[in-house]
Amino acid sequence: MTAFGDLSMKSDDVLHVELEQFRRQHRDLDEAIAALEDKGARDPLTVKRLKQQKLRLKDRISWIEDRLTPDIIA
Hints:
By secondary structure, the protein is an all-alpha fold. Helices cover 77% and strands 0% of the residues.
């Protein structure tokens, strides 16, 4: 079973939709982190958690992109 086992059984159409959702969430987290850092966040733990969540989303995005990209024999 893959690290994202629930994604491995989904159709490509569903994965495309989820990919866009994850990209949007990733951008939103990036903006939230930037806003907190610009404001001089007093809670570095919150920033750290948001960055970890952003990294998890990036991993999911990469996994889906790899799944949707056809293997090309060179």
